[in-house]
Amino acid sequence: MPLITFVDENDKVIGSGTKEEIWKKGIIHRIVRIFLFNYQGELLIQKRSDFLASMPGRWDQSAGGHVDEGEDYDVATLRELMEEIGVFSVSLKKISKYFSNDTEEDKNKIKKRFNTLYTVIYDGDIKPNIEEVSEVKWIKPEDLKKWMDDKPSAFTKGFIDAFRIYKESR
User: Fold this and answer.
1) Per the count of CB atoms within 10 A, which of 3, 96, 115, 134 is most buried?
2) Nearest to 55 by CA among 119, 147, 134, 1
3) How many angstroms separate the CA atoms of 159 and 170, rounded?
């Protein structure tokens, strides 16, 4: 299991360690979030595997994850796209970088992180990694917003926040 980059409150690298350490001790770390759109303007969302340690079975962004030791945000984004949904050789557009501080309900996982949100336009094949993704779905952003408003518990909090930030950036 790769180590995750630890950062300070200014997003400067201060070390690395495991997911368990960051969640238990509340260490600030970096994650990437990717919204993959097709040319019809639909967003690909994924349902997290029921076997994941964090937020299993909830709908989430197209791909995303921690920035590993030795990576920057862009490298982690390309790796996560390839690992989670089999997408590579794409052009990234950085939308926003923001800080979040959450505690995952029912698990007491402290999540202090710098999030960098990217968008990608892509109409090729999607090959979900069944260890991480149980289902994928293309959805119009307006339908997604209604679904999130009606049933927020179906989604990860991080995705809901990222979607709001994406909508505000437009």
Assistant:
1) 115
2) 134
3) 17
Q: In the predicted model, is pLDDT for residue 106 greater than 60?
A: no
Of the candidates 43, 64, 44, 62, the residue with the CA atom closest to the CA atom of residue 54 = 64
SS3 state of residue 92: coil
Domain count of the fold of the chain = 1
Domain region containing 158? 4-169
Residue 2 is given by DSSP the state P
CATH number at residue 109: 3.90.79.10
Q: Which pTM value belongs to this model?
A: 0.94
Can you tell me the mean pLDDT for 24-50? 97
Span of 88-97, 101-110, 115-124, 131-140 with lowest mean pLDDT: 101-110
Using CA atoms, how far apart are residues 27 and 4, in angstroms rounded to an integer? 11
pLDDT band at 105 (very low <50, low <70, confident <90, very high): low
- Nearest Cα to Cα of residue 16 among 7, 32, 109, 8: 7
Vertex 3, ends 108 and 94: CA angle to 5°? Answer: 85
Amino acid 170: pLDDT:
83
